[in-house]
Amino acid sequence: MSSYVPNTALQVKEMLATIGVGSIDELFAEIPAGVRLNRPLCLPKGLSEPETVRKITDLADQNISTQEAVCFLGGGMYDHYIPAAINHLLLRGDFYTAYTPYQAEISQGTLQAIYEFQSLMCALTGMDQANASMYEGGTALAEAVAMAQTQTGRHRVLLPETVHPEYRQVTESVMPSLGARLATVPMEDGVTDLARLNEMLDDQTAAVVVQYPNFFGRIEELDEISAAAKRVGAMLIVVANPLALGLLTPPAEFGADIVCGEGQPLGIPMSFGGPSLGFLAAKTALLRKMPGRIAGCTRDVRNQRGFVLTLQAREQHIRREKATSNICTNQALMALSATIYLSLLGEQGIRAVARQCFQKAHYLRRELEKVPGVSFPFTGPFYHEFVVKIPQAKKVLDRMAKEGVFAGIALQRWYPSLSDCVLVAVTEKRTVEEMNLYCQLLGGLLA
Amino acid sequence: MNGPEPLIFEMSQPGTTGFTLPEPGIDEIDPADHIPGKFLRSHLPLPSVAEVDVVRHFTRLSRKNHAIDVGFYPLGSCTMKYNPKVNEDMARLPGFAALHPYQPESTVQGALALMKDLEYALCEITGMDAFTLQPAAGAHGELTGLLLIKAYHDRKKNKKTKILIPDAGHGTNPASAAQCGYEVVTIKSDAQGGVDLEDLKAHLGPEVAGLMLTNPNTLGLFEPNVEKIAELIHGVDGLLYYDGANLNAIMGWTRPGDMGFDVMHVNVHKTFSTPHGGGGPGAGPVGVKKHLEPFLPCPRIAYDGKKYKLITKAKGSIGTMRTFVGSFGVLVRAYTYITQLGAEGLKEASSHAVLNANYLMARLKKHFLLPYDRFCKHEFVLSGKPQAAKGVKTLDIAKRLLDYGFHAPTVYFPLIVEEAIMIEPTETESKKTLDAFVEALEKILQEIETNPELVKTAPHTTPVGRLDEALAARKPDINFFQRPAG
């Protein structure tokens, strides 16, 4: 057992003497008898480091990771290659054991990295400003919805069925207490039903949300959705995959007011769902409505360039109940991962990864067309994820997992009408051999 | 190290890159044949930098930071304890880090077992009956807890509109309550630094949904009337929320569940040593008593004696607070820490956190004003009023400490103490380090007498001097691509 307490018994004695007590127990004397714990905690005895490592590694070994199985799972989190340099830099104690950069003079590393992150997110999305990070994609969307409500003074929000079901669940769980009225827009051929959207829009609509590419990998008619929203004075919130923006036109060019999403594709391990990276970018008009931290560039007394947390009058530690959000701790280290990832890959690398994702997903889809028995419920443009209908999908997915291929996500869990439909994601990491194995196994099982 | 570091964009050399992909190995198609042209990107203004230069850039940036691994970090309310290195290794095991959240349940049994066991450990440490590990941070835990309170009252058809919060509470408390649509009512502190019972009684009524309390509070003082407070709140069918930010003071000594709290969050990035990461990620698991368990968010982890299962829908649940199960990688670190410390180690951690704080307080109280002179728990609050009267503000003292190689304490919080200096040493610091910190403060106090300008213009040895925050707010320069003119 180690509790990482460095003091020796002698030092403890000296300290107690300075305080003027005989034992540590006396320092706890004021805890009322009625609430004291008069027994040891009922937890296992502490372990040495080697024993701890053995116990935790045993648990890890009970899992089958995507390093052992081939991963075609997506749905908001993707198996991309993470360059080695990222982890080496993240493990610098000066980054990961620092706190929020409140003392700017000794936090310039973190602050400049946040400034670079904000700028990189602006570069990808085309927006005017971005904050230092949010928790993850779903909560970032909820905050975007809150921003649109305060800015427009309206409360109706349209959420198409094609937005990630868990993002919608998060928004539905969190937002009604702020007065939001959420309405679901149905889909047609895997994209938002534009006719229905137009019918549902009214002058009480604060925002229309659209995912780009959407939950099924489809590319929505962003320009038409944007125009429809603007006609009634509603805001356009785009939930974007930032890596897809290496191939796709930035949402700003379609008139997005807020762009948010999940930054995990940018060099962050999947880690069974987190910690990942929420991001939030917006137009200048929304600057004072932004939640969370923002780093800004300024000058110091020596007239050098320096960075600080800025526009803090929006935040909870200053404004308390009048703050734009309650967020305090964010995902700074994951934002640093994304910053390093985007710096390493640069324009060339990000374009190349986005393109390979597109190419490989389209290859797999072409090959799957040759497998007798499978069909495709949706037509039309997609990026690196698509839906395939497989007879007895659940059974087939189980069998393929046993053969070492995580072949996709069964959609029935969220979409009862999409029984036997499977969401398949293909990243740049998948090889042609792995994709051919997918088709072979599937062909064998369906034969 | 002290020179300015260019921005990554200023280092760009078009044509170079820090990463190469393998050939795709398939026949490529033209994206324009499959995606309408309006959706295909033209301009992409990302920097082009070689790997060696990227690595040097971020290494040089890291050296401009203070961090626990560099030196003492007595930031009150933040529990900046040492982050054990083995935690990092465990979180990075491929059997954890390379799991996709939608893998078949049969392939993630180890991960679910870890989470279930962590839930159990948190229940035992806090005296709660059930936990959700979903929330991503402390404030996110508060939001979750308040939605649980709301769900409880809605179920009982209680008309509740107000949340009571002591004036010493963290800023996230009122912000979270407001985000749930509650009206915030501030309760005064009494002369001993606890909740003013008379003021509390004056604000009690049928419309009170609950009270949010940190215990020990942000003054580092244990609330002696906690049982009475619980009785009063429960008397109007209100619920008691425990802000777990200060849990590091009491592990193994007392438990929120035994004090009468109904719902609470834990900041694993404080109490359970997961790194702060320059501002995150954290995790804010939420614990509840039996009567709130049906409202917990999904997914929940179930165990039937053979297999672990994720329950994604439950009647009565407040819904889901975030995507996927939680910040699993952070939870692995916390679990590793709890495994290593065990029951006796956790109590020892709290005991020494309190010992260290009282030692520092005993040594420093002769130099500053100590507004509440009682034994503290894991932290204490001094006032720099005597120094301010000499023209040197608390902020100046904080900045001068940076020159001595220490992070500054939390300053100007809690709001009820003028010129507040809030010090939390944690248990992982030695007497030697604490003594060096006291000596630095004593030297600064001498400087205030002999050369106050030196303190008022500090810091002098840091990579940058005091920064113009007014300029930053007046002319926001927050995006390299849209810098203000001038």
TrEMBL record, chain A:
Residue ranges of every copy of the Glycine cleavage system P-protein N-terminal domain listed in the record: 3-436
Enzyme Commission designation: 1.4.4.2
InterPro entries assigned: GcvPA, GDC-P_N, GDC_P, PyrdxlP-dep_Trfase, PyrdxlP-dep_Trfase_major, PyrdxlP-dep_Trfase_small
Catalytic reaction list: N(6)-[(R)-lipoyl]-L-lysyl-[glycine-cleavage complex H protein] + glycine + H(+) = N(6)-[(R)-S(8)-aminomethyldihydrolipoyl]-L-lysyl-[glycine-cleavage complex H protein] + CO2
Listed GO biological process terms: glycine decarboxylation via glycine cleavage system; nucleoside metabolic process
SUPFAM superfamilies named in the record: PLP-dependent transferases
Gene3D superfamilies: Aspartate Aminotransferase, domain 1, Type I PLP-dependent aspartate aminotransferase-like (Major domain)
A GO molecular-function descriptor: glycine dehydrogenase (decarboxylating) activity
Pfam families assigned to the protein according to its UniProt record, in alphabetical order: GDC-P
Alphabetic keyword roster: Oxidoreductase
Function: The glycine cleavage system catalyzes the degradation of glycine. The P protein binds the alpha-amino group of glycine through its pyridoxal phosphate cofactor; CO(2) is released and the remaining methylamine moiety is then transferred to the lipoamide cofactor of the H protein.
Subunit structure: The glycine cleavage system is composed of four proteins: P, T, L and H. In this organism, the P 'protein' is a heterodimer of two subunits.
Family: Belongs to the GcvP family. N-terminal subunit subfamily.
Name of the featured protein: Probable glycine dehydrogenase (decarboxylating) subunit 1
Annotated source species: Candidatus Ozemobacter sibiricus
TrEMBL record, chain B:
PANTHER family recorded: GLYCINE DEHYDROGENASE (DECARBOXYLATING), MITOCHONDRIAL, GLYCINE DEHYDROGENASE, DECARBOXYLATING
Keyword hit for Oxidoreductase: yes
UniProt keyword annotation of Oxidoreductase present: yes
EC annotation from Swiss-Prot or TrEMBL: 1.4.4.2
Lineage: Bacteria, Candidatus Ozemobacteria, Candidatus Ozemobacterales, Candidatus Ozemobacteraceae, Candidatus Ozemobacter
Protein name listed in UniProt: Probable glycine dehydrogenase (decarboxylating) subunit 2
GO molecular function terms attached to this record: glycine binding; glycine dehydrogenase (decarboxylating) activity; pyridoxal phosphate binding
Swiss-Prot/TrEMBL cofactor(s): pyridoxal 5'-phosphate
Catalysed reactions, as listed in the record: N(6)-[(R)-lipoyl]-L-lysyl-[glycine-cleavage complex H protein] + glycine + H(+) = N(6)-[(R)-S(8)-aminomethyldihydrolipoyl]-L-lysyl-[glycine-cleavage complex H protein] + CO2
Gene Ontology biological-process entries: glycine decarboxylation via glycine cleavage system
Purpose: The glycine cleavage system catalyzes the degradation of glycine. The P protein binds the alpha-amino group of glycine through its pyridoxal phosphate cofactor; CO(2) is released and the remaining methylamine moiety is then transferred to the lipoamide cofactor of the H protein.
UniProt xrefs under CDD domains: GDC-P
Subunit structure: The glycine cleavage system is composed of four proteins: P, T, L and H. In this organism, the P 'protein' is a heterodimer of two subunits.
InterPro entries, per database record: GcvPB, GDC-P_C, GDC-P_N, GDC_P, PyrdxlP-dep_Trfase, PyrdxlP-dep_Trfase_major, PyrdxlP-dep_Trfase_small
Protein family (similarity comment): Belongs to the GcvP family. C-terminal subunit subfamily.
Superkingdom of source: Bacteria
Domain Glycine cleavage system P-protein N-terminal, residue spans: 47-297
GO CC term (a single one): glycine cleavage complex
